[in-house]
Amino acid sequence: MSEPLFLKQPEFAHARRAADPEPRHWGSDVKRILCVRLDNLGDVLMTTPALHALCSAASGKHITLLASRSGVALSPFLDDVDDVIEYDAPWVSHPSNCNHVSANDHEVQNRVRRGNFDAAVIFTVYSQSALPAAMFCYTAGIPRRLAHCRENPYALLTDWLRDPEPQQRTRHEVERQLDLVRHVGADSLDTGMRFNVCGEDRRTLEAQLVARGVDPQAGYFVLHPGATAASRRYPAERFGEVAARLAKETGAPVLITGTSGERALAQAVIAGATPATHASLHDLSGTLTLGELAALVERASVLVSNNSGPVHLASALATPVVDLYALTNPQHGPWQTPSRVLFRDVECRWCYRSVCPQAHHACLLGVTLDEVVRAALELDGEAAQRKARCAPAAEAIVP
Q: What is residue 85's three-state secondary structure?
């Protein structure tokens, strides 16, 4: 299967849309807005269209992002974010929270209180409750507080959008957050995800590729075999077989990405490839900054990845992506970029578990090597056709 999951599943596709309450537009006096997005980097990326809508609603908006350590890392690349506050909140799953220090909660809340915010927008996926963050903003003295909420928040939210998910319908995460800010009058025709790749990152990436014998101007494939949750990882040995097939059939280099903690995984991918193709495979795990990773994805012919942060980078940068989509949740597929979403439907879909609860991993293991390679080659061919169509038009305007 290769369609967006949130549109395919029958229990959601034909459900009647729940009636939303009447919008209450925020006035011109709302200038300083705290945007709360406390989960992961990919979640912040999927919120960038809503952040842009808030900025576009009126001039003079000042946006502060309250985010986790991984989310804050995006801030240098987001033109719509003016300031950031780092906070690994105790009600959100983060590796650092196993040793959470409550004194930090008071420090962050005091900083928020000193920010003199006119309003707070609390962004959540539907499986999360907005109430802890709402209480946090309420006690920090922020006068307007907007969020989706399933239960009655009473005084914790001044602007409450009743959450229809998942009972009545589901939306892509981008649409969910756009609907939220639209409730207070923030709308934009530009609904693309956003990431501003800087020239210095392009230059340093190019130097790294040249040092490895990779022509940065020629086509290459990027494979990202990692993911924070084991339930969302396609087997490394299959990634290796995909890498070997792509290298053999196209002659293009295949670049493998990951964190420094995923070097063993990247090496397992290379070990899974045929020895004859090893010269075409390059392990970049642990060598790239976030900006350089974005520059790499920006130039890639196709990204092949588990459903993880690089998929959302590809969406922000209009890079074709093969998304190996474990059915842990229905909302986080590629957005507005050429894509193939590969999975096998299973009865235990939408488990929201980090480890497969049935121990069969069938939603991913059912995806064959041939399907992955075919999807990548199709996207590569379609990109070449688009480039060929654009070339005569570009030549026509050259004086």
A: strand
CA atoms within 13 A on the CB side of 146: 27
Q: CATH top-level class for 199-387?
A: alpha beta
pTM over 0.85: yes
∠ Cα 299 301 305 (to 5°):
95
Which amino acid is present at 208? Q
Domain at 20-182, CATH from 3.40.50.300, 3.30.450.30, 1.10.150.130, 3.40.50.2000: 3.40.50.2000
Nearest to 80 by CA among 177, 204, 148: 177
User: 239-255 burial string, b = 16+ CB within 10 Å, else e?
Assistant: bbbbbbbbbeebebbbb
Q: Per DSSP, which regions of the chain are E strands?
A: 32-37, 62-67, 83-86, 119-122, 144-149, 159-162, 221-224, 254-256, 281-283, 302-306, 321-324, 339-342
List, in sequence order, every residue forming a beta bridge with 148; answer none if it has no partner: 161
Strand order in the sheet with 159-162: 83-86, 62-67, 32-37, 119-122, 144-149, 159-162
The two tokens of residue 226 are: 């990692």
**355: DSSP letter:** S
What pLDDT digit, counting tens, does each position of 222-268 carry? 999 998 888 888 999 999 999 999 999 999 999 999 999 999 999 99
C-alpha dihedral (86, 203, 281, 258), degrees to nearest 10: 0
d(CA 183, CA 203) in angstroms, rounded, equals 42
Residue at token pair 């299973």: 346
Domain boundaries, the chain: 20-182, 199-387
Radius of gyration of the chain (CA): 22
- Other C-beta atoms closer than 10 Å to the C-beta of 110 total 11
> Residues 344, 362: contact at Cβ < 8 Å?
yes
pLDDT > 90 fraction of the chain, expressed in percent and rounded: 71
What is the distance, to the nearest Å, from the Cα of residue 50 to the centroid of all Cα atoms in its chain? Answer: 14
